[in-house]
Amino acid sequence: MSKCVAAIPLSAIARLSLVEAGGRSMAQVKEALGCDWILNAWFYSMATGKAVGNLKIDGAVKAEAPWNSWGMTWDAVNVRMDVVPDSGGRNYLSGVELLTPGRGPGAALSYDPAYGGKRGRSAMMVAGRHLILYCSGDGTGDAKTPEGLRDELVEIGGQYADTASLRALGLDSGGSSQCDFSGGRRITSARRVAGYLCVWLRAAGNPPEKEESMGKYRVTPSVGVNARLGPGTSYGKVGAYPMGAVVEVLTIQDGWGRTAEGWVSMAYLEAAEPRATDTGLEIQADYIPAGRKNRPGGTNPGTYITIHETGNPDPGADGLAHAAYLKGAAEDAFVSWHYTVDDRAIVQHLPDWETAYHAGDGADGPGNAESIGVEICVNAGGDFEAAKANAAALVRLLMAEHHIPVENVVQHNRWSGKDCPHTIRHTEGAWEDFLALCRGTGAPASALDEAVDKLAAAGLINSPDYWKAGDYSAENVQALLIKWAASL
Questions:
Q1: Could you tell me the pTM of the whole model?
Q2: What does DSSP say about strands 186-187 and 246-249: parallel, antiparallel, or unpaired?
Q3: How many CA atoms lie within 13 A of 375 on its CB side?
Q4: Residues 329 and 256 in one domain
Q5: How far apart (Å, rounded) are the C-alpha atoms in residues 144 and 174?
Q6: CA-closest candidate to residue 359, choices 320, 305, 284
Q7: pLDDT in tens, 358-379
């Protein structure tokens, strides 16, 4: 292997550290620290072994050049490019400025001639919400000039963010280039370098690339608002949003919201238009707290939408009541789903992209791991027909957002055999009518539905709802063929 590239969601990183080698090899450092990813890092003098340029590790300055430069810096895992040492955090390092706020794709580079030529290269880049680590072997076909490295990083980073926003720093290179990434991707070298960049992932492994959102907000001041490194005015500025910009807030802390660019004072934001169905019904977010046993996390591709009924006829057992249940007693029962719908509201309990325990087919079953769970309330005093209509409106929204065909809107029964959604299953034509609502008023029936209706009218099949669901056992198909043959 002569080249390794890693794209790590920033939300997946538990810790990011610069580590002095102390004469140890890369393998020895990785084994001693137990990090998940390791890459050679800063420049150093071959004569003295000491770092050159600007370097700070966990608050301790290790090297200080008589000039400022663009470098990578971070406190915890909020890595960014800034002017170091002046605007650096607790950790920073300088290197070859490949992509900076003042030097974008295609701009001329400036570097010591000793760094030129074709050689193995190491680099780190921030591309949107991803940290990109790059390493190529010296003396291989992947050896590149600094310009070639920059151009390749633009191509890689463009998959994750606008190329104008990419920030990349060239690290020590040539015979120093070495890495050990996940999946056995390694580039080794006999050279023992001065230090490494080490990355530890969260204990649960890589979370999905999309972080949970606290909602979208609009910037109100006429002069815009600054984005800062941390939640407070004492932190350095890392960007800004103009008046009227709509930003997604990922975390709220001490009156500050974390966005893709940095932390912004919530005092200068107002809630933007909430997510709503085509009927105008707004979705209320009331999430199960992270870390609870009935919030497993993981990545749900949203291949299916699974329809349930709550089975709780008690008065008042509406969407908000079930939200309280999911945040309480449901934890020990290992039960969770994404949405509860009643006759007046839609309440969301988990982000669509997370898995949930709603389908009864095991933690890794396709119902739990690949479908979005929707519960329809059957509480006494509620209007079940209105609740179904609201659920269908939600399904239409989810189908549009996740490109899910109506054929993949399925009953809970499909995954575990449970008699759910009970009322719909025990009302003739109710499932067909619900799917018609999901298609939209006046939308034609699918070709499968029309074919089933014709066969049912001719007496060639029974249980049309079963055949319209599109999920058949081999035994039932064989029985149907025998029945058709007997009718000839």
A1: 0.47
A2: unpaired
A3: 28
A4: no
A5: 10
A6: 305
A7: 999 998 899 999 999 999 999 9
CB 200 within 8 A of CB 15: yes
Mark whether 439 and 484 lie in a shared domain: no
Q: Are residues 308 and 429 in the same domain?
A: yes
Which residues make beta-bridge pairs with 387?
Answer: none
Domain around 457: 447-488
State whether 135 and 16 are in the same domain.
Answer: yes
pLDDT in tens, 57-69: 988 999 999 889 9
Q: Pick the closest to residue 228 from 190, 192, 255, 203 (CA basis).
A: 255
CATH of the domain at 242: 2.30.30.40
Q: Are 98 and 149 in contact (CB under 8 A)?
A: yes
The position carrying tokens 């070298």 is 189
Angstrom distance (rounded) from CA 469 to CA 467: 5
Q: Transcribe 305-346 into DSSP letters.
A: EEEEE----STT-SHHHHHHHHTTTHHHHT---SEEE-SS-E
| CA 71 to each of CA 39, 53, 80: distance values in angstroms, whole numbers, following the listed order | 16, 10, 8
